[in-house]
Specification:
This protein folds into 3 domains: 209 residues, FAD/NAD(P)-binding domain, CATH 3.50.50.60; 145 residues, FAD/NAD(P)-binding domain; 56 residues, Orthogonal Bundle (Arc Repressor Mutant, subunit A), CATH 1.10.10.1100. It is 33% helix and 23% strand. It is built from 14 helices and 21 strands. The chain is globular. The structure holds flavin-adenine dinucleotide (FAD). The site of flavin-adenine dinucleotide has 38 residues, from helix 1, strand 2, strand 4, strand 7 and helix 3. Flavin-adenine dinucleotide (FAD) binds next to helix 1, strand 2, strand 4, strand 7 and helix 3.
Length: 460
């Protein structure tokens, strides 16, 4: 047995904006903090850094708000704490986090846990979405900004929500021609987000920065359009695009083909709640905030004593929300461990950031009609090769719940454990018009780890 055990006051899962903000504040107050992140460097998804020694990032332009993030990384890396990268948390109990790092099995014993594991891309299956060259908008961002890879020459960016603009901007600065940028939401629906953007200085500056980028690159965002399918011999060569109605249903009479060699499809984000659900934390479904997210009180406490949460796990909101919630979660931990008062300004900051984010996201809430993009033979679960038709047959035979659909056709039982297919599986299987889904079904290991890690896991 190759077991290792760590002791700390606080264990923080995630070194994105939420986790970094919390950990920095806790370490500055003199607590012993261990931060666990499966990525190789700090920053999380939005402030992603190239691997050490790699080059190519300097040409990818970033909006002004990222300065703030890079300062946070600097402070975080200078604060005295145990930062562990390449560390995947695969099991947890209150006060205990089991993780794999460098092929070894570790246990962290801590008094408090702060969960800040972020989100996943929301996948909406359409014919050809599994072809090489077609990927999520987030994956494109990871490739371009996280690894300095230029993914193609002629790109199509489609989907819905605030992540489309950064994706277009990254591709353009990497020298890729963005031949079309399609937002499924209508211009009128999106206008609802305008007061939230205009009323918030940072968001306003960011929106103007992106607008200028698109203008200079000659990219026009088309509202009420999406991708109907992708085609190609061995990899994507063409995309069929067209208009959608207000619910997102494809208007087939508007279809037209364009030549592309890379497609980024980003239909929003889904909170990464598995760790929280496994710990027993209460959750709630809110389609505009990405679906199931953890419920927290006015100090980021979850329903489980000693477990706090910050960022996308509490509902999609973006980096500013994550940082404000990380600060508040840290203050609440300090209150419980040291009796320090919680500054009311931190609560006000969280409330203001959440209000702005909610107003923005309401304009891009998931459109159920987009599930009609999948034809009967479109793969919905790529781990288990399950088509829409098979998922529907399973639902008809076994019932409409997520569990019944999974048991009936094995969808969601592969290595991704339904992280990719889960958010749309039930809607497609049941042809349900709404987006209220069952809670994700979670089980350990919560991350893909070696079987030796589980066998060698330190006993508590
Ligand atoms: C793929 C992707 C790309 C994105 N790109 C952009 C972008 O370019 N611009 C933008 O404005 N927004 C982007 N976003 C949105 C962005 O996630 C949020 O706005 C912001 O980063 C949220 O901060 P967070 O701290 O909640 O989570 P994140 O920044 O996502 O940080 C969470 C961290 O937790 C780690 N983690 C998760 N689970 C575990 C585990 N079990 N064990 C160990 N570590 C774990 C992850 O490695 C990650 O570093 C992206 C989102 C995704 C999913």
């Amino acid at each position: 047995m190759n077991a290792r055990i760590l002791e700390a006051d606080v264990g923080v899962v995630g070194a994105g904006p939420g986790g970094m903000a919390a950990a920095r504040r806790l370490a500055a107050a003199g607590l012993q903090v261990v931060v666990l992140d499966e990525g190789q460097r700090a920053g999380g998804q939005i402030f992603r850094q190239l691997p050490v020694g790699a080059s190519g990032h300097d040409r990818i332009a970033e909006p002004p708000s990222h300065e703030h993030g890079h300062r946070l990384i600097e402070h975080f890396e200078r604060a005295g704490m145990d930062r562990r990268h390449g560390a995947s948390v695969w099991d947890a109990r209150p006060g205990r986090l089991w993780f794999e790092q460098g092929g070894e099995s570790w246990l962290l014993r801590c008094q408090k846990i702060v969960l800040a594991p972020g989100a996943y891309d929301r996948v909406v299956p359409f014919p050809g979405w599994t072809l090489p060259g077609v990927m999520t908008a987030g994956a494109l961002q990871v490739m371009v900004r996280g690894f300095g890879v230029v993914p193609g020459r002629r790109a199509l960016v489609v989907g819905s929500g605030p992540l489309l603009l950064p994706t277009v901007a990254s591709l353009v600065s990497a020298g890729v021609q963005v031949v079309a940028a399609l937002e499924a939401s209508s211009r009128w629906r999106a206008l609802r987000a305008l007061p939230a953007v205009i009323g918030n200085g940072a968001r306003r500056r960011e929106a103007l920065w992106y607008a200028k980028k698109l203008l200079l690159a000659g990219v026009r965002l088309r509202w009420g359009w999406t991708v109907f399918g992708c085609e190609g011999d061995g990899r994507v060569q063409r995309a069929v695009i067209g208009k959608v109605d207000r619910a997102g249903r494809p208007r087939r009479d508007t279809a037209r083909a364009i030549d592309v060699d890379v497609v980024g499809a980003g239909f929003g984000l889904v909170p990464s709640v598995e760790l929280g659900l496994h710990l027993g934390c209460a959750s709630r479904h809110d389609a505009a905030r990405g679906g199931h997210h953890l419920v927290v009180d006015d100090a980021q406490r979850t329903s489980v004593a000693g477990v706090f949460a910050a960022g996308e796990i509490c509902g999609i909101g973006g980096a500013e929300v994550a940082m404000a919630e990380g600060e508040l979660a840290a203050a609440a931990v300090l209150h419980e461990l040291r009796g320090a008062p919680i500054d009311a300004a931190l609560r006000r900051a969280v409330a203001a950031e959440r209000r702005a984010a909610d107003a923005m996201l309401a304009a891009f809430a998931p459109m159920p009609g987009l599930h009609e993009l999948a034809s009967p033979d479109t793969i919905v679960c790529r781990c288990e090769d399950v088509t829409a038709q098979r998922a529907r047959a399973a639902a008809a035979l076994h019932g409409s719940s997520l569990r019944a659909v999974k048991m009936g056709c094995r969808a969601g039982m592969g290595p991704c454990q339904a992280r990719i297919c889960g958010p749309s599986l039930q809607a497609i299987a049941n042809a349900r018009p709404d987006e209220v889904m069952d809670r994700p079904i979670v089980q350990v290991p919560l991350k893909v780890v070696r079987s030796e890690t589980i066998v060698d896991a330190p006993r508590d």
